[in-house]
């Protein structure tokens, strides 16, 4: 039986450090204009930062579980921030990145496996589920800090746009993952407080929750209402719509290979 997480189980993975290093170098290239292809630098910076946030999201679940009684998370590698250690690396990293590329949506992924039987107390179970979305909220506040602190003087436009787009991804991830839909963290928060009968009825459909969210977002009315809410929230944090739009426009650097990007987002 696993009784404790060793120091090696908690050592930060070289994989995560490599991703963080690429993100930092790309961010420097965006800030300084060092790269001739600004869009590609924005792509690397935002994608890298998005993966880092996904790792921190899952780490928050695992770390909270560790302190709540599930000592097995260390042996599973969840405390190393290594995305390759996740139960579903495809769902946790690959699909969320693809959704960003295809639609500019920070769709939440899955998951670290928590041995819930080791944890006692409904509040602990709820906190473990809430830890992930709260990490996205913290990341969103960090990205938007230069905007709501009115500290954009001297910040290059390309970097402003990249931060604005990254903030949008964090906000969408936090909101979507907080929905009380089976399979998402929002449902995990309320699940401990539901009756055993309801939990048993919901259990078979939980794996399809993420698919259901994606399908619902394809409904035009829902899509418009959702993004209106996102834009309103980000505007309250000082991020204007054109900044988010230009961030996404720069992010899709490959569009410049086939057709012109929006001249209104030029940063040169």
Automatic annotation (TrEMBL):
Keywords annotated in UniProt? Cell membrane, Hydrolase, Membrane, Metal-binding, Metalloprotease, Protease, Transmembrane, Transmembrane helix, Zinc
Instruction: State which residue ranges cross the membrane.
Output: 12-31, 37-56, 89-114, 126-149, 161-184, 204-227
Question: Which InterPro entries has this protein been placed in?
Answer: Metallopeptidase_M50B (IPR052348), Rip2-like (IPR044537)
Highest taxon listed in the record's lineage: Bacteria
Gene Ontology biological-process entries = proteolysis
Q: Where is the signal peptide?
A: none
| Main location per the UniProt record | membrane
Q: Which Gene Ontology terms cover its molecular function?
A: peptidase activity
- Which cofactor is essential here? Zn(2+)
Q: How does it sit in the membrane?
A: Multi-pass membrane protein
The entry sums up its family as follows:
Belongs to the peptidase M50B family.
Query: Which named protein is this?
Result: Site-2 protease family protein
Record organism: Streptomyces sindenensis
- Taxonomic classification, please? Bacteria, Bacillati, Actinomycetota, Actinomycetes, Kitasatosporales
